[in-house]
Amino acid sequence: MTIENLQIPTVALGTWAWGDSGETGDGYFGSTLTKASLEDVADKALAAGFTLWDTAVVYGMGRSETVLGQVLKRFARSDYQLSTKFTPQAAGASENPAADMLEQSLARLGTGYIDLYWIHNPADVTRWTPHLIPLLKSGKVKHVGVSNHNLSEIALANQILGEAGFRVEAVQNHYSLLYRSSEDAGILDHCRNHGIPFFAYMVLEQGALSGKYGPENPLPEGSRRAETYNAMLPQLKTLTDKLASIGEKQGAAAPDVATAWAIAKGTTPIIGMTRPDYINGLVRATSMTLSSDEVAELEALADAANVNTRGWWEKEMRA
């Protein structure tokens, strides 16, 4: 069975915040987004050559997919790639909940197929991974990956898919300067050794590594990210200052350097896109080169900050 190669971008476009309704206290990000501004984001992204959009059913329980579908309908389907996710924890009780969830995603996104479909969080790898096989055979899913799986779960999922002539074609985990558990657990090495693309989410830690926020200018009150990060902003200042100073030397800003770090580590960062000017940052990040000394210095400062940014939905990556 031939598997058409997945096109791996240098950077993927994240739409987690597109699931926020814009109401204070509703959602992780406290973002007020308009369709017009998101259309500007999409126009600018595609013009710059960034074409893979990452979403999920559970981002606003369908809102992110719906908005993304509306924003992208002005473009030819061949102009972009879609990445979305099956979440076992949100599965219905029907005979085939994965197929049902996929159909709902296809309808919201206004498309007939998904380029990259993920099992979002591991629940029971033996139970849920086989559900991907008929979706691949149907052509409605072109490629599959696993998200938030540890090394043994990745290997088990790959074994199950392999028996049907498929394989795990991508891994997506939380990975940032502040949270390198996938590296510590050997997952990055495993992916590198087996030619599996690794997608890194929360590279900017929901804005906490952007340099935009600090003790005097905290994250938006009423948002989940404010609850998580505002207390640790003082500990992050030395790191974000260093990100900014490295950026200044290359005509870039702190978030561009954090993104460039993730690229330098051999990953594809998924960067949340809520404003058109963020695309300029991606252009800068993808053209930037960090020295090994700069990478080591950033990691040392991140370690010294001594914070734990593991999400409530995430388990330890060490098996």
Number of helices: 13
Write down the Rg: 19 Å
CATH homologous superfamily title of the domain at 12-79 and 170-305: NADP-dependent oxidoreductase domain
At the fold tier of CATH, the topology name of the domain at 12-79 and 170-305 is TIM Barrel
| Mean residue pLDDT | 91
The residue ranges in which pLDDT falls below 50 over 5 or more consecutive positions are none
How would you describe this structure to a colleague?
With 319 residues, the protein is an alpha/beta fold. The protein has a domain at 12-79 and 170-305: TIM Barrel (Alpha-Beta Barrel). The chain contains 13 helices and 8 strands. It has helices at residues 35-47, 63-72, 97-109, 125-128, 132-138, 151-162, 181-184, 187-194, 224-229, 233-249, 254-264, 278-286, 292-305; strands spanning 12-14, 52-54, 81-86, 114-119, 141-147, 171-174, 198-201, 268-272. The chain has an 8-stranded parallel β-barrel, surrounded by 4 helices. The longest helix is centred in the last third of the chain and has 17 residues, at 233-249. The chain is globular and about 55 Å long. The two termini are 32 Å apart. The mean pLDDT is 91.
